[in-house]
Design goal:
By secondary structure, the chain is of the alpha/beta class. 42% of the residues lie in helices and 14% in strands. The protein binds flavin mononucleotide. The site of flavin mononucleotide has 29 residues, from strand 3, strand 8 and helix 9.
């Protein structure tokens, strides 16, 4: 399949693996890139620019194909060493960066000068247009269904994607709720040039996370996610568990007076315990509604090949037959 996204990133299939905290290690990114998609290492998960440099080098040993690095710009009292991370990306020869969170404008000149293509993750049309206007090469449009931070507008992809298509000139991928060939064909129909998946890629053999997490995704239905931190305007879609129930109780009791400190036990530094040790109730972890469409744990290559085969069948057989019959 050839789209503006496969052309832009020099990849075989228009499928991107979005940055994921404590999932986006070299094993994950390399498996996706080797299978013809675009794998992405999660920058901040590495803990320091030095470690990111090592992770980039490790990924390069595992694949000769293009891969990217995610840089998430979060509001923080003591911000991470972003200049250091950017230096590691540039010196590591990475040519694709997925930015997310705050406006990446400040960091674009350095990235552009190094010939790096930037895809910014956005949850609204207005942020997508802003990304286009500051010189991003593409956007990843993240609908309300998505795992992680869906923003505060609550517009699902059936509306958000065609709205993005109406306004954007640069290519974009559909993100949030994407799982299979049906998702890909739908995303293309709605105006996207490919798709980005997070949650679905966690339930793969190569995902470097504890098997308990993969099994939780297979067991979960589309009804099992919850939105947390709404009162803090930092909404996150997570899988329901004991910690999330406790957190939501606190939100109910404290109302608009709630502060981050009140929920730090449920959200602060919990990822390693969940992803590495498989302690499923240790805290809140991002998960999309798409969990309802995850029924197995294939290899990344099996997953991507299946998606492309299914998409081809839908386009060449199902849709063509319907169009001809009309
Ligand atoms: C466990 C997990 C961790 C994530 N961590 C990040 C992150 O650190 N930075 C980021 O930009 N997006 C992060 N995301 C969002 C994904 O990159 C992607 O946009 C999202 O998962 C798409 O929705 P889906 O899960 O329905 O496929 C995370 C998602 C998950 C499931």
């Amino acid at each position: 399949m050839k789209t503006r996204i496969t052309d832009l990133f020099g990849i075989e299939h228009p499928i991107i693996q979005g940055g994921m905290h404590f999932v986006g290690f070299a094993e994950m990114a390399a498996a996706v890139s080797e299978a013809g998609g675009l794998g992405i290492i999660t920058g901040l998960t590495q803990g320091s620019p030095e470690n990111l440099a090592k992770e980039i080098a490790r990924c390069r040993q595992m694949t000769t194909r293009p891969f990217g690095v995610n840089l998430t710009f979060l509001p923080a009292l003591t911000p991470p060493d972003y200049p250091g991370y950017i230096k590691a990306i540039i010196e590591g020869g990475v040519k694709i960066v997925e930015t997310a969170g705050n406006n990446p404008q400040k960091w674009l000149p350095a990235l552009k000068e190094a010939g790096i293509k930037v895809i910014h993750k956005c949850t609204s049309v207005r942020h997508s247009l802003k990304a286009e206007s500051i010189g991003c090469d593409a956007v990843s449009v993240d609908g309300f269904e998505c795992g992680g931070h869906p923003g505060e507008d609550d517009v699902p992809n059936f509306i958000l994607l065609p709205r993005a298509a109406e306004e954007l000139k640069i290519p974009f991928v559909a993100s949030g709720g994407m799982a299979d060939g049906r998702s890909l064909v739908a995303a293309l129909s709605l105006g996207a040039d490919g798709m980005n998946m997070g949650t679905r890629f966690m339930a793969t053999r190569e995902a470097p996370i504890h098997d308990n997490v993969k099994q939780a995704l297979v067991a979960a239905s589309e009804l099992d996610t919850r939105l947390i931190m709404r009162p803090l305007r930092n909404t996150e879609r997570v899988l329901k568990n004991a910690a999330v129930d406790r957190l939501l109780d606190k939100e109910k009791q404290l109302g608009s007076a709630i502060k981050f400190q009140d929920i730090v036990a449920e959200v602060g530094g919990v990822y390693p315990r969940i992803m590495k040790k498989g302690e499923m109730d240790a805290g809140a972890w991002s998960c999309g509604m798409v969990a309802g469409l995850i029924h197995d744990v294939p290899t990344v290559k099996e997953l991507i090949d299946r998606i492309m085969r299914e998409a081809d069948e839908i386009i060449a057989s199902r849709l063509t037959r319907m169009a001809k019959a009309a």
